[in-house]
Amino acid sequence: MGRKMWGLIPVFDCSQLLLLCPSQCKPSVLSIPTTDARVASPQRTMADQAFVTLATNDSYAKGAMVLGQSLRNHNTTRKLVVLIGPHVAEPARDALHSIFDEVILVNVMDSGDAANLALMKRPDLGVTITKLHCWTLVQYSKCVFMDADTLVLSNIDELFEREELSAAPDPGWPDCFNSGVFVFRPSNETHEKLLAFCAEKGSFDGGDQGILNSYFNTWATADISKHLPFIYNLSSIAIYSYLPAFKQYGHDAKVVHFLGKVKPWNYSYDTQRGEVRGHSASPEPCQMHPDYLLQWWQLYAASVLPLLQKAYGDAPFSTGFVEQRVPEKPQEDVREQPKPSPPAARTVSSQERKQRWEAGHIDYLGDDSFSNIEQKLNSFLK
Ligand SMILES: *[C@@H]1O[C@H](CO)[C@@H](O)[C@H](O)[C@H]1NC(C)=O
Ligand SMILES: *[C@@H]1O[C@H](CO)[C@@H](O)[C@H](O)[C@H]1NC(C)=O
Ligand SMILES: *[C@@H]1O[C@H](CO)[C@@H](O)[C@H](O)[C@H]1NC(C)=O
Ligand SMILES: *[C@@H]1O[C@H](CO)[C@@H](O)[C@H](O)[C@H]1NC(C)=O
Ligand SMILES: *[C@@H]1O[C@H](CO)[C@@H](O)[C@H](O)[C@H]1NC(C)=O
Ligand SMILES: [Mn+2]
Predict the structure, then answer these.
(1) Where is the composition biased (Basic and acidic residues) (predicted)?
(2) Which of 66-75, 153-162, 193-202, 206-215 has the highest average model confidence (pLDDT)?
(3) Phi and psi at residue 311, in whole multiples of 5°?
(4) Residue nearest to atom 1 of ligand 1 (CA)
(5) Is residue 271 part of a domain?
(6) Separation between Cα atoms, residue 204 and residue 213, nearest integer Å
(7) Between 158 and 145, where is the model more confident?
(8) Which one of the ligands is nearest to 77 CA?
(9) How many domains is the chain built from?
């Protein structure tokens, strides 16, 4: 049985929000200066808000390009910003520049004192500290952070009506939010506090999700009005990582988050047949939801690859496409893969279950089943 390592982030539409917060949803009256005609275009009116993503290496840069292009294709009116680490190659940076309004190099090693200090205390948190850099984008009043392994299925500009820190429940752990998509307000002060928190306390899961959940630790319980849009109507929450729930809720999904170790760019794509092929780490061709994986590759082939080809010129790079002459035959080593672990015992501890979830051993019928997750959500709605 293939594990379905993908998840969906819930997004409510404005009519639902309107029931809760009429003032926020009223069309805002913008005073538009008449001197500069460009200011009047919708693309210009929201220039102080941005979608932000992060790419610390060339594979994640490809993901960022597909994400950025998916936001563009759905006509976002917000700016697009990508933070990159020093290891992203020059041609990949050029390609990012064609999609994003800003490409910002973050080198934590020689950045501000506080970041450097945090890094020296917690060298294991390098990528996390780089991600926290998004709080320094003070040229924007509000931002939506999105992991480079997400893909947008429709316009999600309404997310900017939410407040910091808005996020969706983690599919495996509804008491925690998933840090793949969140709304935040850039602030030097918050950034410094987050860094100090990082240096002092570390992360319970070794990554940014742990830090952010500890820092914004009232997310599940306090000020429910701010976070209500994400949880007030269970039937609109499409966070579930497996097929039965997808069938029920999938049509509401606006963002796909490709969770797990194997990412879309780890597969390959047969351009002639328009098919996604497997990867050595995952012999089955499509462990992820095949439609979304295919959508990712189609966007990559149509819009991102031409940019990469232009940027790399004659220099070689990995396209991710299947070589035409490679004979297609089932991989012999499939049968030698270790068997999936047996179903979880009913009495595993919370911590164990979380670890198991993160390692991809999801107990679809037991502890992690939809009804149990639903119960959990219901319990903290009350
Ligand atoms: C690329 O960066 C991501 C985080 O941004 C990290 O999880 C991943 O391991 C990196 N991959 C390589 C090959 O360095
Ligand atoms: C985006 O805008 C273009 C031009 O106005 C339009 O043709 C297209 O249908 C829009 N796309 C979506 C997904 O709304
Ligand atoms: C935030 O920090 C940056 C860099 O340290 C500085 O240039 C900027 O003026 C600060 N902004 C505010 C609002 O404090
Ligand atoms: C919850 O959502 C469903 C459809 O997604 C809708 O029929 C129902 O009226 C909503 N409930 C509330 C309380 O808004
Ligand atoms: C995915 O691909 C990247 C480079 O393209 C590689 O570094 C990483 O190890 C791969 N991950 C898996 C799980 O195969
Ligand atoms: Mn992710």
Answers:
(1) 326-338
(2) 66-75
(3) -70, -40
(4) 57
(5) no
(6) 9
(7) 145
(8) 2
(9) 1
